[in-house]
Write a structure and sequence with these properties.
binds nicotinamide-adenine-dinucleotide; globular; alpha/beta; 13 strands
Length: 330
């Protein structure tokens, strides 16, 4: 059996090679994103695996089907880059990855602390031997009310992590998680916005969640609120965020993800002209921390991502099913 892996990073190759030898399969590695221009490289493969930046459109899926490829895995948890409706119509079975939430949950708490303690400015100053305290006074986690939006795998782990700080924890989700309700108080979304000093997003990008942080929702929040987003950039309206920072409604913002980050994040673009004005403008504020979608990026998670990517294609072919198959829900 041959599989083709797109978007392969150097740090993934060791795990791919181990799995290829374990299953006795051949894996072709392609560094580039899967696109209509290079989909031909998948010819002769039983399945194809991608990461999250390949836009797996109807066009790409039709080309894959024409090449005889019926199985696709994404080595990410999120799958909004795949046209699932088209995959279902074309009879292409799709799976995602299911790595542990610890890496993203740890990172989320780090961003909360960095924002609360104004660490970006402290770090910048220390680098130029400026050791002044002016403007660096922080606040303590125990005094914070923290609102977690989305209490699935990552959101509930963030709540576990936060339990030792003595903060008051509020939660909002369309489904109540019993484990979470022992550590946090479920409230309505408006109530969470109204009462929280720190708000952290952990919902997937759906039509119902896209742009949920906008001028109306921000208006309901406390003055000086800290917003953390380790989920998806498109959950936030960037124009409204910029306006709220300029008017000092938002006290601090920490973003591991950004709208239209594809083609920028995870690449060395030092000598390129980057055409994302919002990204450049918002980054310069002293109270805005931006990282390049690395919350997931730990040794454990990468091992799990590659394993899920390969194992699900092998089980689609050999057993007709995969543990993490995802289905189109209109
Ligand atoms: P999950 O599916 O376990 O949890 C998502 C939760 O959101 C569920 O409990 C669901 O009920 C809730 N939800 C869905 N729609 C909602 C709505 N409209 N309002 C309120 N709650 C709603 O997912 P997860 O593993 O916790 O991951 C969450 C998101 O984090 C992913 O979808 C992905 O976009 C993002 N993520 C980011 C990184 C990173 O490196 N920054 C890594 C992994 C995942």
């Amino acid at each position: 059996m041959k599989l083709t892996a797109f978007e392969v990073r150097e740090d993934e190759v060791k795990v791919f090679a181990m799995l290829a030898s374990q299953y006795g399969i051949e894996i072709a590695y392609v560094q580039q994103l899967l696109s209509p221009e290079n989909v031909d490289l998948a010819e002769g493969s039983a399945g194809v695996t991608v990461l999250g930046f390949s836009q797996v459109s109807r066009e790409v899926l039709s080309q894959l089907k024409a090449l005889g490829v019926s199985f696709l895995s994404t080595r990410t948890i999120g799958y909004n880059h795949i046209d699932l409706a088209a995959a279902t119509e074309l009879g292409i079975r799709v799976s995602n990855a299911n790595y542990g939430p610890h890496g993203v949950a740890d990172y989320t708490v780090m961003l909360m602390l960095m924002s609360l303690r104004k660490y970006k400015q402290a770090l910048f100053r220390a680098n130029v031997n400026d050791y002044s305290l002016n403007g660096l006074q922080g606040r303590e986690m125990k005094d914070m009310t923290i609102g977690i939006v989305g209490t699935g795998k990552i959101g509930s782990k963030v709540i576990d992590n936060l339990s030792g700080f003595g903060s008051r924890i509020l939660a909002y989700d369309t489904i109540v998680n019993e484990h979470v309700s022992r550590k946090a108080e479920y409230v309505s979304l408006d109530e969470l916005y109204r009462q929280s000093d720190i708000i952290s997003l952990h919902v997937p990008l759906f039509e119902s969640t896209a742009q949920m942080i906008n001028k109306e929702s921000i208006a309901k929040m406390k003055d000086g609120v800290i917003l953390v987003n380790c989920a998806r950039g498109e959950l936030m309206n960037i124009t409204d965020l910029i306006s709220a920072i300029e008017h000092e409604k938002i006290g601090a913002l920490a973003l591991d993800v950004f709208e239209k980050e594809e083609g920028i994040y995870h690449f060395d673009r030092r000598t390129d002209i980057i055409k994302n004005r919002d990204m450049a403008y918002i980054r310069q504020f002293p109270n805005v921390i931006m990282t390049q979608h690395i919350a997931f990026y730990t040794d454990t998670a990468v091992g799990d991502m590659v394993s899920f990517g390969v194992k699900s294609l092998v089980s689609f072919v050999q057993e007709g099913r995969a543990e993490t198959e995802i289905f189109f829900r209109p």
